[in-house]
Write a structure and sequence with these properties.
The structure is a homodimer. The first copy, chain A, is α+β, with helices and mostly antiparallel strands. Chain A has helices at about 5-20, 70-80, 130-140, 190-200, 255-265, 315-325; strands spanning about 1-5, 30-40, 40-45, 50-60, 60, 65-70, 85-90, 95-100, 100-105, 125-130, 155-160, 165-170, 175-185, 190, 205-210, 215-220, 225-230, 245-250, 275-280, 285-290, 295-300, 300-305, 310-315, 330-335, 340-345, 350-355. At the A-B interface, helix 2, strand 9, helix 5 and strand 21 of A face helix 2, strand 9, helix 5 and strand 21 of B. Chains A, B: It comes from Deinococcus peraridilitoris (strain DSM 19664 / LMG 22246 / CIP 109416 / KR-200).
């Protein structure tokens, strides 16, 4: 087999797979990727056992062949090549990689022992790629990271009227975003770490979605993926969303982020980075206190609602996370000093964050 | 005491000190910095016990005062302020930091317990700041990092005719650079880690140099420093510089760096990342071999000298380090397959690197 391929295209494809394929594993074959050469090009595939990924790279190929190579070494070699065109050729158990004055002979692995990876061949629904990636990225922070119940480490995708919704929660805060879908969205839970890879890979155009047996298939122009889903019941998050708003304030999200970051410098790390929010008379006063001193900041806000004033304590990190995806003006909706508070982007119904205040 | 100071200037000064002052220490006072307020401005000073540093920040001050504050918190607070002007004021044991809608009360430390720092008041010699920083940065890599004899972890500064020279070596390789000096340069050894701070702080203009008792004073427009020197005798490095060059090649430093990086991907990590250099007939052939395969690269070179061909093995990392400071064309001077090789920038007599080849 001989293949001529553009260094840039091959390098981009290898770059995508490099993120998935582990660089170390107790099973060394899993650190490899599979290359299938066909007349139109090369299909590169790899897995981390949570996500299988395949990427097609156009190439001139003289004859069909399939082989397995160390993923990271191959990617590193191609990335460092000097020329613009790469010539791959297979002879015996060596892959030769040639470009400009460089010649590499890379030992290939045992093809028969490589796991069988399968990829979607049809689409059950489709999303706008940017919308899907933005939605997952907006709620990702609210998923739990560690010793929490497994479902809290996932992002739920569900149908909501004619739209799709992604939801994440760690029990202390919740984030959701609605976005447009074409076709049926089924309820499922994607591991948050696999969602990170989706966010990276899914860039623009349309994303095809395929429902499998405990898997979600994803098809983009460049890439096909099969993502293992999580079992279990996602908690009934709707009941933590307060219905009865008593005080609403509106202000620049950036100004609030900066002020919270500022006062949080002196907040007590051992008391949940507590920052006090005191709303009254069109002002939001932030205050924090710790071992080294006290901090106070005052912001002008637009204010309405049935209560004229309210005082709540928040974990500064949770407030900053909730504000993260909000550009322009933010809307903060309070239902009482101990009830969950809501953070929204003004004029954008898609994103909602819910943060439980700290106890007094 | 009340002081009005520009946020930008104060933040820059604190940023310089933040690099020196440790963020944790068994003696919490050492994580603080001292502020001396005088009519013309504030002098900020701090130490890591290896380097003492003082930085002057112009300010409007109503009355003299001196106090000690937690360095990193103070720097973080000032950096995050929204306004352009900062008002500092002292009342009781609190420093108030005010700007825009923000107000911080920071507890001050015990001034009497803070170590006495001294700074140079005269200059014995002077260097061009860029030249000094560039020279130190060029040889820094060759200093030893760990369990080596202490002097190998330092950079020697010495007089050489009318110029100054910096030298570093870990016993396997050596780097030196000569640069212009005004006045007498004394032989001394600066700890490599303190040299890193000098490289960062010394930017442009003239640098005044002061010889103290086991210390080197440094004065720039913004900053004064006192650097603790290393004791001991720097090894006689001159004798490893080969006098008898048998083969010389010239080629683009960038092309050589890229080719060495390329073939090194397959070099054996357990055999010093060995890369073979084979020079003959106007060509430099690089080759490496490891568990995963073999790599070869060929570069055109200009070649002269008494020997028509030579083959040497090098640690790829040492070659890349030696080439690091060289821009444009590089000159490689070989004295034999087991003799130290020299790397120079063509047409720039200042920099010289010496690398000992690996044994066969």
């Amino acid at each position: 087999m001989r293949a001529n391929v553009s260094k840039k295209t091959l390098s981009e494809g290898l770059g995508l797979l490099e993120r998935i394929v582990p660089s170390r594993s107790s099973n060394p074959l899993l650190t490899s990727l599979k290359v299938e050469a066909e007349p139109r090009g090369l299909t590169l595939s790899g897995t981390n056992l949570e996500i299988d990924m395949a990427c097609f790279v156009p190439a001139e190929v003289d004859r069909e062949a399939a082989f397995v190579v160390p993923a990271h070494l191959f990617a590193q070699i191609v990335r460092n090549l000097g020329g613009e065109l790469v010539e791959l050729s297979l002879s015996g158990n060596e892959l030769s990689v040639q470009s400009g004055g460089s010649n590499f002979k890379l030992q290939i692995g045992e093809l028969g022992a490589y796991p069988l990876l399968s990829f979607p061949t049809r689409s059950d629904a489709s999303y706008d790629a940017r919308e899907l990636a933005r939605s997952l990225a907006s709620v990702r922070y609210a998923a739990a990271t560690e010793a929490f119940q497994a479902v809290f480490r996932g992002i739920k995708i569900e149908q909501l009227g004619g739209r799709a919704r992604v939801v994440a929660s760690d029990g202390f805060r919740l984030a959701l975003r609605d976005f447009n879908a074409h076709g049926e969205t089924r309820n499922l839970i994607v591991p948050a770490r696999s969602a990170d890879e989706l966010i990276r890979v899914v860039r623009d155009g349309e994303v095809g979605v395929t429902y499998g047996e405990g898997t979600l298939g994803i098809t983009t122009e460049r890439v096909k993926m099969n993502v293992k889903l999580m079992d279990g019941e996602f908690p009934d998050y709707e009941r933590v969303i307060p219905r009865d708003v008593k005080l609403r304030i509106m202000l620049s999200a950036t100004a609030l982020k900066e002020a919270v970051s500022r006062v949080a410098v002196l907040a007590d790390k051992n008391a949940n980075n507590r920052v006090e929010f005191l709303v009254s008379e069109g002002k939001l006063q932030l205050a924090a206190e710790g071992d080294y001193g006290r901090a106070q900041d005052t912001l002008q806000v637009m204010q309405d609602g049935s209560e004229p004033a309210m005082s709540l304590g928040f974990n500064a990190k949770y407030v900053l996370d909730a504000l993260g995806p909000i550009e322009g003006d933010a809307e903060l909706l309070f239902s009482g000093p101990t009830s969950p508070a809501m953070f929204k982007a003004q004029g954008d119904g898609g994103y909602l964050a819910v943060v439980v205040p700290l106890r007094v």
